[in-house]
# Entry
Amino acid sequence: MADYDRDDPRFKKLLADIMPIVDEIKRLNAEAVARGEFPDDRGMLECLKCGLMEDVAINNKHLVYFKHSDDHADTGLRFVATDDPAVFHCPNCNTKVYDPDRMEN
Ligand SMILES: [Zn+2]
# Structure
């Protein structure tokens, strides 16, 4: 990781320029989630114990269904966030599920 001098005025200017954009992205993401779309700030979750998994429909709607279900209809269940942004709980069996986008190799 690069070393930044946080007291460098160029760094402070860059941060000041970026933060409104970051806030706008967060706001747009929250709006999308409110419309029933997948939150784009993490990977799609899958419970390895019971097979509950997330998917995105062609209309961009967030779906959560059992991997082996016939119709892949949305169950209405949603994985539950924890204090650790990389860890969720399965709403069906309460197993810990890890965000694949935050797992280290
Ligand atoms: Zn589960």
